[in-house]
Design brief:
Structural class: alpha/beta
Bound molecules: ligand C2E, magnesium ion
Largest sheet: 8 strands, mixed, barrel
Radius of gyration: 20 Å
Number of helices: 9
Shape: globular
Low-confidence stretches: none
Distance between the termini: 64 Å
């Protein structure tokens, strides 16, 4: 035992661990059934062009709706599924739902819209990921240029050479590639100049302060100008205030995603918002 720690502290910690463990067990026990029951649902969060304030795309974000109606956020289950491998089944379910929705829209003659999906780092080590994904695009007749693959930066910190090859193979097929959550973890500026990507998504952590300090602003506008100089488009995540929008416009940021504009919403709500004809 650690000196100076009361026994009761351990009791509280044990209890905390126990709660975490049983929650994780519950999630693992129910995941297969939940997939069959259609408990996983896809929400869409609009992406806004900052100068015109028009919706230029959307990100597909999964939710878990329990039979009780309770909704679980992906941060509560994606990390568990990345550990036990279930993330592949879940993601392909999400991709299939998303692509079939997009197909419906295209068949009804709606204007084209770019949809982003999240690609777990796990998939980059799966030899058949790209082929399987291309199979889905063929099934739903979706041109790759309408799909943006968001890859989280935390997996970028090693094996940069191999990653360049993988990303290039995606890009050759015509997908847009973005680096997600940039600045939150292991981001390096070297990565920015080496990776063959199209879009940089600035992590929401940069915008978690109600009032941004001078230092924050210097860092954010520095990253934006660096990215723009390298020919990338920049999206800011988690934009919640007009003050942030004003600053981002001054800093030449292209797009934003955040509660100030829209929260992630069910597909039907998104269709209403954009006046999308659907069958
Ligand atoms: P992400 O890809 O970085 O997605 C952005 C997250 O920020 C979303 O959280 C979104 O709801 C949230 N957000 C957007 N604007 C604001 C804002 O103004 N304020 C605040 N407080 N939050 C905002 P969400 O939906 O909980 O997703 C969390 C993460 O889970 C995602 O982060 C992504 O990494 C992962 N994820 C979500 N869906 C999937 C999926 O289908 N597959 C995989 N592999 N991962 C997913
Ligand atoms: Mg994302
Ligand atoms: Mg992100
Ligand atoms: Mg994130």
């Amino acid at each position: 035992t650690v000196k100076g720690t009361h026994k009761s502290d351990f009791a509280i910690y044990d209890n905390f661990l126990h709660t975490q463990v049983s929650k994780e067990k519950m999630i693992e026990n129910r995941m297969n059934e939940a997939l069959k029951n259609n408990e996983f649902i896809v929400y869409l969060q609009p992406k806004i062009d900052l100068s015109s304030r028009k919706i230029v795309g959307a990100e597909a974000l999964v939710r878990w709706r329990f039979p009780s109606g309770q909704i679980l956020s992906p941060n509560d289950f994606i990390p568990i599924f990345e550990k036990n491998g279930f993330v592949t089944d879940l993601d392909f379910y999400v991709y299939e739902k998303t692509l079939s929705t997009l197909q419906k829209w295209l068949l009804q003659g709606n204007p084209e819209i770019i949809i982003s999906i999240n690609v777990s780092g796990i998939h980059l080590n799966e030899a058949n990921f790209l082929d399987r994904f291309l199979g889905l695009l063929e099934k739903y007749n979706i041109p790759p240029r309408l799909i943006e693959l968001e890859i989280t930066e935390s997996i970028f910190f090693k094996e940069l050479d191999r990653l360049v090859l993988i990303i290039n193979s995606f890009r050759q097929k015509g997908f847009l590639i973005s680096i997600d959550d940039f600045g939150s973890g292991y981001s390096s500026l070297n990565m920015l100049k080496t990776l063959p990507i199209d879009i940089l998504k600035l992590d929401r952590e940069f915008f978690m302060w109600n009032e941004m300090g001078v230092q924050d602003k210097i860092v954010i506008s520095g990253i934006i100008s660096l990215a723009k100089g390298l020919g990338l488009k920049v999206v800011s995540e988690g934009v919640e205030t007009e003050e942030q929008v004003e600053f981002l416009l001054e800093s030449s940021c292209d797009m934003a995603q955040g509660y100030l504009f829209y929260k992630p919403m069910p597909v039907e709500e998104f269709e209403k918002l954009l006046d999308i004809k659907s069958i």
